[in-house]
Amino acid sequence: MNDISPVKSTSGCPFHGAGAGFTPYYHEDMFEALAEARRNEPVFYDQDTGYWIISRYDDVLSIMHDHERISAVNTSESATPLHQDALDILKNGKFTAEAIQSNCDGPRHARVRNVSAQLLNIRTFAQLESDIRRLVTEALDALHGKERADLLAHFTYELPAQVLFLILGIPKADTHNVKKWAGKRTIMNFSPSTYEQQVDGARHMVDYWRYCVDMVADRMKNPKDDFASNLLKLRNGDDSVITLNELTSVVYGVVFAGHETTTSQLTNAFRALLTERENWEALCADPSLIPNAVEEAFRYCGAVINWRRRAKTEVEIGGVKIPAGGNIMLSFASANRDEKHFENPEKFDIRRKNARKHLTMGNGLHVCLGAPLARLEMKIMLEEFTRRFPGLRLSEGQKIDHAHTYVFRAPRSLPVELQ
């Protein structure tokens, strides 16, 4: 199975009770429906996606640790079954990205993850702090003198990618293409897609994959101090450590995962902080509150709202039997507001004592390797922004629209007043 696979059919259930208000691709008013589900039908079947939705914290956590009965193989399957024309484009374009990271199980996942973890860890990320602060300062300098801006377009969109490029050795000039490819991949994997979108997306995925193949080939001839070069050094020509195609697949995955979620998470955090502006003012007055505010943003307005699993055998969750082969959607957005674990969960509380208990970054064997980098980036960005633009406010009359994807909560814009 490659990294983009057509959706497999799953046996379902005709009922549609507490989940009637669940709208997987539209996120503006999702929390009320999720709260209703937690109270009355914590496990329900969604007809639109063909997934069993898991809404309570304890059930979500249990599934993430149940590797005997639950598989991660469907994590990156396309939301809409891929048309044969799109599959042919991928095949003819020699798209061979493998399912070896978030969508992989067992010994192979452990082997590849152990190699990646030697390069993606707190120690490595901490060494980037001065470079990240420099990039943030440059981005804020570009905002100086402006009265208003779209915070997504002018700050949070490209900056996380530029941070990631420090690790990957990707030139800044390639930012536009990499962001474009990442957007196309989001549509292919996590959004309802038309025939035209699939064919267009497949062509871009071939370009994206070829870019990664060429990067790895170049580093084999001209090693640098970057991620691909260091992976090759760890491999040392030994396929039992990691094959060349697996290594390229890791690069392909990191290029995507390392910045798209941070862009959305940072945008969500700014919106939450400015909606109840006393929170923003508190951070301006006391920057020591910022690390916990970052964790609360992950909990309250996480960019990753759902994650996927598949039942290997019949399982019973929350009193509901899910058949073997049944597709499961873990609602992080709901679990992070579970009243059993978070007091007054609908409140954005930057002083919340257990904010870091959130599940947005996953848990267990598949916990996000890039979580420490995302935390560091958000901390630095909020430190510098509160210092430079303490008067930041949301523009009046705006209506926040999110990308139509059932995995990420990604605002399309965030208009603000800078002065």
Automatic annotation (TrEMBL):
Q: Which cofactor does it need?
A: heme
Record has Ubl conjugation as a keyword: no
Q: Sorted alphabetically, which keywords does the UniProt record give? A: Heme, Iron, Metal-binding, Monooxygenase, Oxidoreductase
The upper taxonomy is: Bacteria, Pseudomonadati, Pseudomonadota, Alphaproteobacteria, Hyphomicrobiales
Molecular function as annotated in GO: heme binding; iron ion binding; monooxygenase activity; oxidoreductase activity, acting on paired donors, with incorporation or reduction of molecular oxygen
Q: Which InterPro entries match?
A: Cyt_P450, Cyt_P450_B, Cyt_P450_sf
Q: What is this protein called?
A: Cytochrome P450
Q: Which SUPFAM superfamilies match?
A: Cytochrome P450
Write out the similarity annotation. Belongs to the cytochrome P450 family.
